[in-house]
Amino acid sequence: MTMNPPSNAPQPTPVVTAFLVREGHVLLAKRGREVSTFPGHWAGISGYLEGDDPVWWSVVEVSEECDLSLSQLIFRNQGTTLIAAGPEEQSFAVHPLLFDLLPGTDPRADWEAERFQWVSAEDLLADKFQPAVPQLAEAFREVWPPPPLNKAWDANIRLIARSLREDRAMGASTLARTAVAHLVKLLSALEAGEPWAALPERLAQATETLSGARPAMLPLRNLMREVARLSSSEADCRELRDQLQALATRAEQNEQETARQASAAIPPGSRVITLSDSGTVRQTLLQAKDRVESVIVAEGRPLCEGRALAAWLAQQRIPVTLITDAQMDRAMADVSLVIFGADAVLPGRGAYNKVGSTLLALAAQRRSIPVWVMADSLKFAGDEDSWQVSPESNPPEEVWEDAPPGVDVRNDYFDFVSALLIDQVITEHGPRSLLRPTP
Asked: How far is CA 218 from CA 156, 345, 411, 418, in A?
């Protein structure tokens, strides 16, 4: 029964409670002794709701408390909010949510849980686990049993789009393949369910949503175009899943071949400088490590992704120096080659990459140091495209968390590097010039 607080009581604190289901069993957490409320009680994966999207925030809580990512989850249901009594005069507005956890995936508890236990849905509904947080069984009843997955399709697509939009770690090609992997995950789950006549149409709509999540990253748009083309076929759910997996595999192979072509072109004794962190650049430097004398990595502010690349290069025993972006021009005295990846390539015009790339290319041009861009064909705009990148401005707090009033903080993520500053782009087909048409 929902408990309503008296009119003079404080407003209930909003919380999310996520129930994870795997192979017919539900995950419960025995709350740790150090948590502020209900230590030692059984609960779902719970936490205070920040923002106005309980579904998204439940994924955040599951990620933090169980070391799981959205790639391992499928959203299934959201129940009616319950009001539950807390200690003293406190109360909670509980948002119950249900997720499938993919088979073969094991959650790992953090400090908020003493341990996890998989239980039957019947025992949880019967309120057999005590002591429990208030309304635990009632919250589970709100989401159990789950409706057919096609009812939650749009909610899953919105979740995927937000995860792509908020990601700050993956490069453009990896992000695009991740979007396809999410769709494969959903198709695999649908395959075992009821036939869904509207699937091709809804899959095509999903590609539009996902393409718009990161408009500055052309591989995402291009790969979603291919998915939309496949969804218009007469293939059934399993065939679509297999076709999408093959599509992602080809995209990954093209990136690997791009790195192979680039590494083969690097002269012995090269002293390389790069900016931020690119998956293709990583593979290139690893394959060419015997011909690379040293690598300078500019951080790529504000999130300083270059630090991860520098640490990885050190693990590979490749001599590496990390610098701030402001030192790029000064560092050119110790450099013979500039390389970086790209989020989008416009033939005849140039390439988009992490902000700072233009300054790096200008510093190289001033000293006649060659500039190479590593980009497989998935990153190229077609001749028929009138595509324009959005600036993709991101939270100013990433630059200055506590900026004083009156200071307008700008946080653009991408630079346009003119083709005049790029000596060659290396693709899976080898080197090419952006200023000359491909033969």
From this structure: 22, 8, 20, 17
- Tens of pLDDT, residues 367-419: 999 999 999 999 999 765 555 666 677 889 999 999 999 999 999 988 999 99
Amino acid at 317: R
Decide: helix, strand or coil at residue 413. Answer: coil
Q: 280: Cβ–Cβ under 8 A, 6 or more apart, which residues?
A: 171, 173, 255, 258, 259, 262, 341, 374, 375, 376
Distance of CA 136 to the CA centre of its chain: 31
CA nearest to 121, candidates 145, 142, 103: 145
CA distances from 231 to 241, 260, 270 (A): 10, 32, 46
- Identify the structural domains of the chain with CATH numbers, from first to last: 13-147 (3.90.79.10), 150-256 (1.20.120.420), 257-400+407-432 (3.40.50.10470)
pLDDT digits (tens, 9 = 90+) for 233-284: 777 888 889 999 999 999 999 999 999 999 999 999 999 999 999 999 999 9
* Helix axis angle, 279-287 to 172-191, nearest 10°: 110
Place of tokens 């093209």: 254
User: What single DSSP character describes residue 24?
Assistant: T
How much is the average pLDDT of 193-211?
87
Do residues 93 and 135 make contact, with C-beta atoms less than 8 angstroms apart? no
Neighbouring CB atoms inside 10 A of 9's CB total: 11
